[in-house]
């Protein structure tokens, strides 16, 4: 009798172990959120979570379970510890897919949060505007004070970047992860502009008499082109006007530089006072280029600066719709001003 009881007990233990093994096997291959949850989720929209540095595997598993993203959190933690991986989970932001298996969840947590946030620099924005946008981001570490922003370019001085970063951030959409520092976002845009500027400078033909002595002067001219027109087919024409004016020692007489030099004094209208007030950026008074760029130029504007059209235009005036009327002679330009600005025949 005792022998049979031992046999039966052994079979029960075996069956219990087999049942547990089957449950574990099923858990291992099933969605982490469970069958019922994932059926309700349909296409399973990703759920974003943020793991802070120092969180334990148990706390992370419990947090996922509280959001109905992980069945059997204790099994998941036990498995991580058995594999000696519990301490390898990395802080960061994660987009969790309820259809993942435990193995896929583990791989994601060990690889680190890969959620990427977009950050866009728009052509024509100034450094002050870009800085304000960066300072408004919630997912980055803000490390730069006012003084550091003014000389941030010193970090990349070996590449020819000036301490003051106006013009040096290439307008594009960049992606970053939570926890990155503000200067790292700036660095991406600076390196992109350096590459763009070097390519433009190396492709320019200085034998044609381009009156630009350095890549930085290309950047300055490109920023003016960017502010003068957003019409693609006009960029080279605008560039041509300014290049010919520089070659003839004519003043550039471009309003965007005046506006930049006015700073907060500009309230939507330049006026006679603005035109008559001397500043390093008032190209109605100074000859040549202003001392710095006045905005962030697009790659297209940079290329236009080293590829001016070969026409004869020396003047242009806005005629509406973002386009301009170009003139060869001053008399023709005066007629265009009367027509498009003063509305006179």
UniProtKB/TrEMBL annotation:
Give the site residues for Important for catalytic activity: 228
Q: Which reaction does it catalyse?
A: a peptidoglycan chain = a peptidoglycan chain with N-acetyl-1,6-anhydromuramyl-[peptide] at the reducing end + a peptidoglycan chain with N-acetylglucosamine at the non-reducing end
Database matches in Gene3D superfamilies: Classic Zinc Finger (3.30.160.60), Endolytic murein transglycosylase (3.30.1490.480)
> Which cellular component terms (GO) are annotated to the entry?
plasma membrane
Q: Which InterPro entries match?
A: MLTG-like
Instruction: Tell me the protein family, please.
Output: Belongs to the transglycosylase MltG family.
Summary of the function given for this chain in its UniProt record: Functions as a peptidoglycan terminase that cleaves nascent peptidoglycan strands endolytically to terminate their elongation.
HAMAP family, per database record: MltG
Name this protein carries in UniProt: Endolytic murein transglycosylase
Originating organism: Thiomicrospira aerophila AL3
Organism ancestry: Bacteria, Pseudomonadati, Pseudomonadota, Gammaproteobacteria, Thiotrichales
